[in-house]
Design brief:
Number of strands: 33
Shape: elongated
Largest sheet: 31 strands, mixed
Distance between the termini: 92 Å
Keywords: Membrane, Transmembrane, Transmembrane helix
Structural class: alpha+beta
Number of helices: 13
Radius of gyration: 42 Å
Strand content: 35-45%
Protein name: AsmA family protein
Organism: Brevundimonas kwangchunensis
Pfam families: AsmA
Length: 681
């Protein structure tokens, strides 16, 4: 239980030790002022001098008040015009009356016929013309260090905005100030009225022309609020922009201001429904953003963000702005026939824009990814994407890379596809990474996981040149041969795993141009495997054994001791340096070229059996024609020569001698597989 007696003793101690001495000191200080301070004495007992000074001060105050009340503010128009024109290096005029009302809790000003001209390079069009401008401020908030405007009323404003290709902007009053990307910060406006406003925008870099009307009115009906309605063109195609906001009545700093915005052009449509977090800091807002269109690359002209070419897309997520930083978080949707989700951050920490993206797909259509690499997407009636090179009969895409867009920004990208729809290459997963800085794009990793094996590598694209210069280094590990060579008769033709590497570099605006100008090396190695015995015999053109087994349905197999194809590449032409297929019955060696630019091949394979055969055609296998549909056959001229020789011998000597040209002594030996594989790596 509390002890009242003890509490009372504590209070008395505090009073005696602290409060009484403090009161005594204050009383002593008061007595000293009364006795010694001349100002206090003059105020208590003013003399003639003090009375005169007080009267003069009062008169001056009254005079200032009377002067301000009767002053013709139009007399300041000239000095204001000269000062503003000199400071902002453009013609600024106040051609109408200037009225100021200072004696109010909401001081106000009214300007008529205001004109702000354009900078030196755009003097033919005024940046702003206003017939009448009225504004007021709340005095009590101003004394508290906050600016609030009870009223802003603008009649017939005409705004002209011009942006040049080199980045100059007519509306920047101080062009030397760095562009930080932060939004305009306005004070809270409780009543906004705009009558008959117009806005004209010319953006030369993206070829944008826009004419818009602007209005704002207060009230509670459906017509109240802010409205911007624009129509124009971008790159010669129609462009529309609509921005709607609610009325400004009773708006507060802590109450978000809602808005809706729609931007459509180039087959792309962006819709934002959100709110400005702190009115009216335009650098702070949150909105639900939905965008859809035919190609994500088209949003560069609308937003200035470089994106790759894609099939038709539809995405939605939460867009947040924090001054120069935009975050498109937790978005999801579809690109082509693939799903896509992730997060995107756009920032401007310095002079350059930066974009960082983390993207994911649960199920990827590989044709959609091919579109990103430059292939031309086509959407089937079933909704699937079919990607082509853009040129009939060609494999490599010829769509050029836009190097100018890569130079405008920096950033990173990570993309992962957990699963891939069934495809001819049997790709199961995809993992891609990219880093872009100062016009140089590094791709690392570039990884494709197959049912067995993977393709992994890196690529570097230098886009600082007019024609980009690229270098690639890709390694293939454990890729199953049965995924390359189709089965026959229900049984695999070849089994085993392939290893490979491609190291190429060269100039080229597209993948096709890069291949056409590339230099480097390409190699493919099969350390071991098995091949249908019939086909192994046919490598040596063994008619008796090969065709007999093939036609007889023989499904037995022979060992592939090793297979090595090693090419040097110069000027886009790959020339075989080593081309060996060593099987148990046959050793085959090849020569020839692959033209990467023309996408054709001309290869010759000579086979030698390792055992004596009675019947064998001494003729090489030839593989010729386009990469998309090569022709496989034998050299008919050499076969004809052998047959002719056999016929002549048969007629002159003995019919049995006719078989001699087809007898193979079987002198081929096993290849040194270890040495061949080491040289190819």
């Amino acid at each position: 239980m509390p002890n009242p007696l003890k509490d009372n003793r504590n209070w008395l101690a505090v009073r005696d030790r602290a409060l009484v001495p403090a009161g005594q000191r204050i009383g002593a200080w008061r007595d000293w002022i009364v006795a010694n301070d001349p100002v206090y004495a003059a105020a208590r007992r003013p003399g003639p001098a003090e009375k005169i000074a007080a009267s003069v001060t009062l008169v001056l105050i009254l005079a200032v008040v009377l002067f301000l009340a009767l002053f013709d503010w139009n007399m300041l128009r000239g000095p204001i015009e000269r000062w503003a024109s000199a400071k902002y290096d453009r013609q600024i005029e106040l051609n109408g009356d200037l009225d100021v009302n200072l004696f109010s809790w909401t001081p106000s000003a009214q300007i008529r016929e205001l004109r702000i001209g354009g900078p030196d390079w755009a003097r033919e069009r005024d940046t702003l013309k206003v017939d009448d401008l009225q504004a007021s401020v709340r005095l009590r908030s101003l004394f508290a260090g906050q600016l609030e405007m009870p009223l802003v009323a603008i009649t017939r404003p005409e705004v002209v905005l011009i942006a040049t290709e080199d980045g100059r902007r007519s509306w920047q009053l101080n062009p030397d100030d760095p562009d930080t990307g932060e939004g305009m910060k306005l004070p809270p406006i409780h009543r906004l009225v705009i009558r008959d406003g117009t806005l004209s925008l010319t953006e030369q870099r993206r070829d944008i022309q826009l004419e818009a009307t602007i209005s704002a009115r207060e009230g509670t009906d459906g017509e109240a609020g802010f409205m911007l309605d624009g129509r124009g063109s971008m790159n010669g195609t129609p462009l529309t922009l609509t921005v709607k906001g609610g009325p400004f009545i009773n708006i507060r700093r802590d109450r978000p201001y809602g808005f809706q915005a729609t931007l459509a052009g180039l087959g792309t449509r962006l819709v934002a429904d959100g709110s400005i977090t702190r009115p009216f800091d335009l650098g702070q807002f949150t909105a639900t953003l939905s965008l859809q269109g035919q190609d994500l690359a088209d949003i560069y002209l609308l937003t200035g963000i470089t994106t790759p070419n894609t099939p038709p897309y539809r995405l939605s997520g939460t867009l947040t702005r924090d001054d120069a930083k935009f975050t498109f978080a937790d978005f999801s949707g579809r690109v082509g026939s693939s799903d896509l989700s992730g997060d995107l951050v756009v920032d401007k920490p310095g002079e350059r824009r930066r974009v960082d993206a983390d993207l994911r797909s649960s199920l990827l259509d590989i044709d959609d990814l091919a579109s990103v690499l430059g292939a031309r997407p086509q959407v089937t009636p079933a909704g699937n994407t079919v990607a082509t090179s853009g040129t009939p009969g060609k494999l490599l895409p010829d769509a050029p890379l836009n190097v100018e867009r890569l130079r405008t920004m920096d950033g990173t990208l990570r993309y992962r596809a957990a699963q891939v729809k069934r495809n001819e290459l049997d790709i199961r997963q995809v993992d891609l990474g990219a880093d872009l800085k100062d016009g140089i794009l590094n791709l690392d990793p570039v990884a494709f996981n197959f049912n067995r094996g993977e393709l992994r590598g890196t690529a570097k694209i230098n886009a600082t040149r007019d024609t980009p210069y690229s270098a690639v280094d890709f390694r293939l590990r454990g890729y199953p041969l049965e995924s390359i060579i189709p089965a026959r008769g229900g049984a695999p033709t070849v089994t085993g795993s392939a290893l490979g590497r491609a190291q190429l570099e060269g100039p080229g605006a597209s993948i096709h141009d890069f291949a056409d100008n590339s230099k480097g090396t390409m190699s493919l190695v099969v350390p071991q495997g098995r091949i249908r015995s019939a086909f192994a015999e046919l490598l040596g053109i063994n008619v008796t054994a090969g065709l007999g087994r093939l036609l007889g349905g023989d499904e037995s197999s022979s060992e592939i001791r090793c297979a090595v194809a090693d090419f040097t590449v110069a000027g886009g032409v790959a020339t075989a340096r080593t081309f060996v297929i060593d099987t148990t019955p046959v050793l085959a060696q090849g020569t020839g070229t692959i033209d990467l630019g023309a996408e054709t091949m001309n290869l010759r394979i000579d086979g030698e059996t390792k055992e004596a055969r009675l019947v064998r055609l001494w003729s090489p296998i030839v593989v010729q024609g386009p990469l998309t549909a090569p022709r496989v056959g034998i050299d008919g001229g050499q076969v004809a020569g052998q047959v002719g020789l056999g016929a002549a011998l048969g007629a002159l000597i003995n019919p049995l001698v006719a078989l001699l040209p087809f007898v193979d002594p079987g002198l081929a030996e096993d290849a040194n597989c270890g040495a061949l594989i080491s040289s190819a790596r």
